[in-house]
Design the sequence.
């Protein structure tokens, strides 16, 4: 039984997350089971609060549960910074690829939009051939 500490609801509020999320992290092994009050409520001491804060902040970086499990494995404690840098490098590379793809799609859609805006008014109102970049077959 633990006498000192804060309840899960207060910790969740401090971390701007939910009690359900904190319980899930406990089940997934990211948080150690906290102490319990006389009435069996979870009580988090300073060490448990620091760990919960770390897990929540790392999740906000976009790390998956699996990535966190590997990163926070006690066997990797000595190389936490290096491993986190590696994960961040991967995330950044993935984001740059996604941005490039989105930029290409944006450019394509913008060109099609411009082509549709430039459609001569003499064409039928249902004509969208220019947006499809094909010769008009509507007239």
Sequence:
């Amino acid at each position: 039984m633990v006498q000192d500490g804060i309840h899960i609801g207060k910790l969740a509020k401090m971390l701007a997350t939910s009690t359900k999320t904190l319980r899930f992290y406990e089940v997934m092994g990211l948080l150690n089971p906290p102490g319990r009050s006389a009435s069996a409520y979870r009580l988090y001491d300073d060490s448990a609060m620091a760990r919960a804060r770390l897990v929540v902040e790392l999740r906000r970086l976009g790390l998956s549960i699996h990535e966190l499990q590997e990163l926070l494995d006690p066997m990797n404690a000595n190389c936490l910074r290096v491993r986190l840098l590696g994960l961040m490098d991967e995330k950044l590379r993935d984001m740059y690829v996604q941005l490039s793809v989105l930029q290409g799609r944006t450019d394509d859609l913008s060109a099609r939009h411009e082509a549709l805006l430039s459609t001569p008014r003499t064409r039928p109102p249902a004509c969208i051939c220019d947006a499809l970049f094909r010769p008009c077959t509507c007239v």
In short: The beta strands are 6-7, 35-36, 42-44.
